[in-house]
């Protein structure tokens, strides 16, 4: 597909002007030449360089990849139709039928914006972490700059990658069975999802336990309704854990809460007050 640089440039500028700073969790003070976000703000939200975003908006960039377009769509709070338009004019194929929908819609983003006093994470059907709010990053560690594969929960669990999530042996076994069951179901529902297929293939090679469980076809068994994180400064933090599935999508919103007045609630208050300034 050919890139339509003029339409891409114009669309990006129009969408950027449309988003109010407050909607993106940014301060709205100071004089602004345009009503929406500054270019530097969009670049920061999307994890891009300001220079590259400038070239996109000026019609000077060629062949932006899906890994660039997806975070841009989230930063600009595009609808599904607008996201599809972004991919088309950028010369990229729209997300295929039979592939996991990983796009954070504006309505889901508003939920994340409002839940500032509790950790919230969003994962897809492959247990890929799509995004988290600042308090979740403060609790579990900021993984936003890691490669995609290292942000996948199944990959981290079966390759025993670094994590602050503490699990007993029994909880670990239940989790592994749950992950394999979910990935098997996802493969049947999303046969054209390249990232999912590559994840399963790589896990089969990297983990003998995953390969064995995959062949066993385990049933999904409910795990504990809580999660414990061992924070390097605060220590163990145990929180109630609830999963919510987004309608017309397979995104799952994980909300971690603490009973009012509990020790965990006090620990969350401390994290909310200090945030990521001292904790990494």
Automatic annotation (TrEMBL):
Species this protein is from: Conexibacter stalactiti
Record-annotated HTH cro/C1-type domain positions: 32-83
Protein name, as recorded: Helix-turn-helix transcriptional regulator
Superkingdom of source: Bacteria
PANTHER family, alphabetized: BLL4672 PROTEIN, BLL4672 PROTEIN-RELATED
